[in-house]
Structures are given as C-alpha cells and as structure tokens.
Write a structure and sequence with these properties.
Elements: E1 3-4, H1 15-21, H2 23-26, H3 37-40, H4 43-57, E2 64-68, H5 71-88, E3 94-98, H6 103-114, E4 118-122, H7 132-138, E5 143-147, H8 161-171, E6 174-178, E7 197-201, E8 212-216, H9 242-257, H10 259-280, E9 284-286, E10 297-302, H11 307-316, E11 319-320, H12 336-340, E12 351-355, H13 362-381
Parallel strand pairs: 1-11, 3-4, 3-5, 5-6, 6-7
Antiparallel strand pairs: 2-8, 7-8, 9-10, 10-12
Helix pairs in contact: 1-9, 4-9, 5-6, 7-8, 10-13, 11-13
Amino acid sequence: MQVYMDNNATTMTDPQVVEAMLPFFSEVYGNPNSLHKFGTASHPAIAKAIDQVYKAVNAADEDDIIFTSCATESNNWVLQSVWVDHILGGDKDHIITTEVEHPSVLSTCKFLEEQGVKVTYLPVNEQGVVEAHTVKSFITDKTALVSVMWANNETGMIFPIEEIGEICREKGVLFHSDAVQAVGKIPVDLQKVHVDFLSMSAHKFHGPKGVGALYIKNSQPLSPLLHGGEHMGGRRSGTLNVPYIVGMGKAIELATENLEETRRKIREKRDRLEDALLELIPDTFTVGDRDNRTPNTILISVRGVEGEGMLWDLNNAAIGASTGSACASEDLEANTVMLAIGADNELAHTGIRLSLSRFTTDEEVDYVIDHFKKAVERLRSISSSYAKVKPTPGGEVRECELH
C-alpha cells in the first residue's frame, strides 16, 4: 500500500478536474487575447472559472479575482505593490506580519527590509496563533499593510481573521491574508470577513499546480508585478493559462459545493488517527487545539525521534509525510513554528506533519497508525538520548511539556 499524507504541501488533481481541462490543451487552444474565433472560443470557459472562484469565496461583483501562477506570486504581488504604492509613493513605512508566515511572505518582507521598510514580525501564543489584540497594539499611523495567514500550513491552526480584519478596517490599514490552507477546507466568505487582498492556490484543493488567484476588494488599485501586456484588464501580464484556469474553477467548485459534509468526514479520520497515535505512543503530543485547526492537519511531535529519521522510516513504508512546510523541507534546522510556540530545541526537531484529504481512506489511516508506531519503536530503540518508556496499561495518554 502507498499512502499520501502530505496534502498541505500539494494534492492529487481530482480526475473530474483533469477531465474538464483536457479539451483546452488540444481542441480549444487559441490565445484568448486573439480576436479570431480560435482565441475567443475559450472566453466562456474562462468566464465560468472566474464565476466559480467568485462563488466559492463569496466575492462581491465589485471585487476583482485575478489569476496568477500560484499563491507565492500573489503574496509577492501584494507586498511589493504596497511598498511601491503606499511606502515609496506615500507617507507609510511599516508592514506587520507574523513569525510563522509562509516563506513567500517572510522572504519578501526580508527583501523589503533591505529597501528600508520597517517590518514587525508578531509572535504567536502557545497554540501557534497570533492574537488580534497583538496585531492592534502594533499598528501605527505609519502602518501600510497587515499580512496574516488564514490558516497555518504546518499546524493547521486557524487565525482570528475576522477580528483582525475589523481592526484593520477601523484603523484604515490594508489587510492581506494568505488563505492557501483555508480555501477549500473551511468556509471563506469575503462578504462577511474584511480582507483587502487574499491569496489562494489551486493545487491545495485538488486542482492543478501552476495556477492561483489573488482577490482584490473593491477592485482597488494595485501596481502590477508583471508588465508587458493588457491581460486580465492590464493587472497581470502574460498569456492566460486557459487549461489551468479551467481546472482551478472546477477544483474550487468541487471543494466547496459540499464543504460541511466533506469537512466532517475528513475530520473524523484525522481525529481517529490523532487519538490512536497519542494513545499508542508515549511521550507524544500534537500541536494546537483540534477544534481550531483545519480538519485535515496534525503536527505531531515524538520525543526522542528526529523528524528526518521518522520521514525516512515512513517513506520506506510508502507513506508520504513532511516535517512542515514543503518549501523548506530540505532545511534541517529546527522547525520555526515549533520554536515559535515555545518548544525546546530537541522537540523542535521532532515535528511530523500528517495532512489528509477527501481521498484519504479508513484503510490508509489504519496503515499509517501501524507503521508510524513501528517507526517510533525502531528509532527509539537505537536512540542514545531517549529514556525509554514503556506504554502504560490501557494506552494512557501521557502529557508532554513544551519546555
């Protein structure tokens, strides 16, 4: 058996999505910016995809949805354009973000610091979440933008976006959210939550890799990141990737049409997996309140077991997992999210992320439980630092302090 448990990194493309995309590779292949019928033939499909994305996030008619290559591009676009429009071209000099954002946000902020922008990196609490009052306390009259993710890619913890959005509205500060781990997993209603800019990526909800979107509230001005054409109303140059746009539309429709039922089923499997691992393996804990996590995510830490060693054993058992963000998966440094929530350096090297999808089966969950336990037992048996502890009768869950 092969089991994929790394769905926060990317997902399998839904076969229905692939089917929707296929005609636009070899049948309807004209450049959509061409005036002849080969180009205009794709216009209805593009319009449908735009409508599917609007509906999925409940965007208003006056809002913009601009297709991009991925959320990394969207995040860069917002941060760099706010720098151009409101810092270089205005009287602001300050951006607020968090310590646990995706590298596409953190690295861009580091670049902006080199250009003279002041950036505040907010800490998270013991649950791995930045608190709304913390955001409020750091906003000044020089703050141009607040950028806070909707849900964390490593822990699955959901941030108080509604509260933060209201604070930014009251303060007159632009608000951006990287919602890559939220869209298609939990409700995202942009007429109920105030967000000026929102990034999403199709491959996180069973769409194709290489296409994402940026939501822009009230179609407000935002300097282009890419120049060279009048594509997407002049906001994002480059020939439209029609097959992938169609795929994103279909994927987001499938991900959100029965969202509550899908969430319930995924969560049941996630909770069964989590409960079993905590019961069967002593000195093990998971990060974050599961009631405030995306329904598919577990970040589990096993004392005495290096994350990289654990991944090796899981991979040998044909289980795909990760030690956190896929964009930093080759980095052997301690997990930054684990450090941010106060884990000691040893535990910060032990975090394993298991992330399920709507395609995960009960049989796959059972397989992971069995092989995860075997891997821990093998690695602890050869560990020179772990004080070996036998599970207590009845599989009692043992608490493990972060410090």
